[in-house]
Design a protein that fits this description.
Blueprint: H1 5-31, H2 38-86, E1 91-95, E2 101-104, H3 106-112, H4 116-119, H5 133-143, E3 150-157, E4 163-174, E5 180-189, H6 203-208, E6 214-216, E7 228-242, E8 248-254, E9 259-260, E10 271-284, H7 285-290, H8 292-316, H9 321-336, E11 337-340, E12 343-346, H10 352-359, H11 363-375, E13 379-381, E14 387-389
């Protein structure tokens, strides 16, 4: 049972009326002889007020009992969450928007080899290794711009001067206005893992995160970006340059999950043409320099481009044209192949001119060699003229 506002207002009004009547009665009793007819009226007022006070007292008592019960339930639930936080096997920290530690559990304190009271009010960056502090400042600024969980790998410094590699999962907490009020950090020691396990497994998610997609259609030329690299989410891009005679030279075929860009070449003439409708994201060089996670995710992609470039270089050095074509088909099978029951289908339809450019020969020669391979049963074509490689050893 609760006392609503109308009951409280009525009680206040009646109490004030009773007070005025009692005041008048008291004043009259001091100035003139007390009139007998005023006594019943005074007694009625006192009785009414007494009943109201008694009712209000009972209501307040019941309400107080309910509040005590609710408070005990809330306190028990709160203690349950405190215990979960405090005795969790992984380290947990809560910081404000500037990275100042507000809360910490025992596991986090143990990881850093310090007592919990020592951590309160300290900037979390104090425990980040010197080599990672610049990147940490950058990532802290990026956290405020996103509501998604963020994964970081940092080297942390313990109080005894030893260090370890920690994997963080960070959540952002905002108020109703959207202002960041705190960060919640889940921390694990991953020093004992293999180097390739220290990074998040889904490199694709890291590379496309928070980056707007750019879409281009077949035949379009992709703008050169001198301050970053393009990452291919889907589609195929042909990279080429011009030799002294003005002829186009194929220098790369970039498919899904691969990268390209002016940052990866020293060629003065560098053109990227869409062979199959593409969706790309641009990763700026400043981001790569500032983020170890991003750099590690891109490293295998850079190696892939380097290996393809070396393969094309070796290919161009083969003396016989059919050897160059064989090497090219093997390379395309590896980088752009789609496994089928009958062989490996190239995901993009290359013209005879494209193949001739890559093999440093003429279109007529490529046509003749492809016809021979088809008659030998080593290749065939699907309904869309895509090459299916059956047996190129």
């Amino acid at each position: 049972m609760n006392i609503d506002k109308l009951q409280i207002d009525k009680f206040v009004q009646q109490a004030q009326m009773m007070y005025r009547h009692l005041a008048d009665l008291y004043q009259s009793a001091n100035t003139v002889p007390l009139k007998p007819e005023l006594l019943p009226q005074a007694f009625m007022q006192l009785g009414s007020a007494s009943e109201i006070v008694q009712l209000a007292t009972e209501e307040l008592y019941q309400q107080n009992e309910q509040l005590l019960e609710s408070r005990n339930l809330v306190e028990a639930e709160r203690q349950c969450y405190i215990d979960l936080f405090e005795f969790a096997p992984d380290g947990y920290l809560v910081t404000d928007a500037k990275g100042i530690i507000k809360e910490v559990n025992q596991a986090a304190a143990s990881l850093l080899k310090v007592s919990k009271p020592f951590l309160y009010g300290k900037p979390i960056i104090n425990f980040v290794g010197l080599e990672d502090r610049q990147r940490f400042r950058y990532e802290l600024g990026q956290l405020s711009k996103s509501d998604r969980l963020k994964e970081l790998t940092l080297r942390l410094q313990q109080r005894n001067s030893e260090s370890f590699v920690a994997a963080f999962t960070v959540a952002v907490v905002r108020n109703l206005d959207g202002t960041v009020i705190e960060f919640r950090w889940l921390c694990r020691d991953i020093t004992e893992r293999q180097p390739n396990q220290m990074m998040p497994l889904n490199a694709h998610s890291i590379l496309i995160e928070e980056r707007p997609p750019h879409k281009y259609s077949r035949g379009e030329i992709i703008p050169n970006q001198w301050q970053g690299v393009w990452y291919v989410c889907r589609g195929v891009v042909k990279l080429s340059t011009l030799c002294e005679t003005g002829e186009e030279v194929l220098i790369g075929l970039v498919g899904e999950g691969m990268v390209f860009g002016c940052e990866l070449t020293k060629l003065k003439t560098y053109q990227a043409v869409v062979l199959l409708d593409v969706e790309l994201v641009l990763i700026e060089q400043a981001e790569i320099n500032a983020s170890v996670v991003l750099s590690h995710s891109l490293l295998p992609k850079f190696n892939q481009r380097l290996q393809q470039t070396e393969s094309l270089l070796v290919l161009s050095g083969r003396r016989r044209v059919h050897d160059r074509l064989y090497d090219l088909l093997r390379l395309l099978k590896q980088d752009l192949g789609q496994p089928l029951a009958t062989g490996t289908r190239l995901s993009v339809r290359l013209t005879h001119e494209d193949l001739a450019s890559a093999c440093c020969t003429t279109r007529v020669t490529i046509t003749r060699l492809l016809n021979r391979l088809q008659k030998q049963g080593k290749i065939c074509f699907d309904s869309k003229k895509h090459i299916i490689i059956k047996n190129i050893d």
